[in-house]
Design brief:
The protein has nine helices and 19 strands. The chain is of the alpha+beta class and about 375 residues long.
Length: about 375
């Protein structure tokens, strides 16, 4: 079948493994890291005559391309993350992109290689006829799925470069997201005292203490649900990983869990941490503590002054034949981190978050085409 340019590019990108190795680095090295993907994007930009740099280290590279247009009064940064989540449990071949029923299947097809493919295809069209009307900084950043190290590397590379506004590509079903929750991840460690399993009363079972902490956190999560933001709903907390034990005949002296806390824009991360620490003390005394606490994605809040990119995105949607719709998101993005650094930021992209991270991840071809038309209208101005 004959494929459009954006779908050709998307197919090529999905075939490049770029799995985030995670904090523990347990995924097979032959499919982890963003270097291969970053180098592919850099080659594509180089063929278009775009000044390009690779930043970061080792296999965790990000790519930055810059196009300056004489007389342009505005600089926009468009960022699409390069990493994907793991492929464990997938029911399709994650790196063999397959097209069926007007969808393209594969890991990263929706989150978020479709956004990059649409942007690259649009840029090819625009540069074939001239230059964008806005200065463009095109970014493919590493590590969005875990710690956003790529954004830190990119911002350090850009230094004090003036950026008027930014757009992060994520699956928003072609709506402009101007507000979303933040993400905190925390590891909680529990200590006990080991002993022979035949004499459990002589020990202090860390796994039992962990269970009490989990139940207390679950009750706390239910309380969070009682207060809701009118757009974003309630803050959430979930325990998503846990472990303990050395052997079946030893009472465990250590246990751990990893917690995901979704923040509303008006919540203070330090106060949220203090609340959890109080809860752990009440349940476990000194036997439970927070090992590490990371604000992975700050919340995205509408700025007090109008975002200069908001009307530009609406106009591009109208000109490309799509409805100009705003939305909010319960998931976090690198737009929150860019906004924290003083860059007014929005989120937009093809696909639905319902398909992201799934065992048969896919994106609708029609959404990729419409996103390409949007980026072309945005860059042409």
């Amino acid at each position: 079948m004959s494929l459009s340019r954006s779908i050709e590019i998307l197919r090529d990108l999905v075939a490049i493994p770029s799995v985030n190795p995670g904090r523990e680095g347990t995924t097979a090295p032959e499919i982890t890291g963003e270097r291969r993907y970053a180098e592919d994007v850099a080659r594509r930009l180089g063929r278009l005559g775009v000044d390009t740099a690779l930043v970061g280290s080792g296999e965790r590279l990000s790519v930055v391309g810059e196009i300056l247009t004489p007389g342009a009064s505005e600089t926009v940064l468009i960022a699409s993350h390069l990493d994907t989540v793991a492929v464990d449990g997938m029911v399709i071949d994650p790196f063999d992109p397959r097209i069926a029923t007007d969808r393209l299947y594969g890991r990263g097809s929706c989150d978020t290689k479709a956004g990059m493919a649409a942007l690259l295809a649009a840029l090819e069209r625009v540069l074939s006829r001239g230059r964008p009307t806005r200065n463009l900084i095109l970014v493919g950043e590493a590590d969005e799925e875990v710690a956003s190290l790529g954004v830190t590397d990119v911002l350090a590379h850009l230094g004090k470069r003036r950026i008027d506004w930014a757009l992060a590509t994520e699956p928003t079903e072609l709506k402009i997201v101007n507000r979303h929750k933040g993400v905190v991840h925390a590891r909680i460690a529990v200590v006990g005292r080991a002993c022979h399993a035949s004499r459990p009363a002589e020990g202090r079972n860390a796994l039992v203490t962990l269970a009490r902490c989990v139940l207390a956190l679950d009750a706390h999560a239910a309380e969070l649900g009682l207060v809701a933001d009118p757009d974003l709903g309630a803050a959430t907390l979930s325990v998503n990983q846990a472990g303990a034990g050395q052997a079946s005949n030893i009472v465990p002296d250590a246990a751990w869990m990893v917690v995901d806390r979704r923040l509303l824009p008006n919540e203070n991360p330090d106060e949220v941490r203090a609340d959890i620490e109080r809860l752990l003390r009440d349940v476990a005394g000194d036997d439970a503590r927070i090992d590490w606490w990371q604000l992975v994605k700050p919340p995205l809040e509408r700025p007090r002054l109008p975002n200069p990119g908001h009307e530009a995105c609406h106009e591009a949607l109208r000109r490309s034949g799509s409805p100009a719709l705003d939305d909010v998101a319960t998931f976090g993005t690198d737009a929150g981190l860019l906004a924290l650094h003083g860059i007014p930021s929005l989120v937009f992209g093809p696909g639905s978050i319902a398909q992201a991270h799934t065992s048969d991840e896919w994106v609708a071809l029609e959404q990729v085409e419409r996103a390409t038309a949007f980026f072309e209208a945005l860059l042409r101005g």
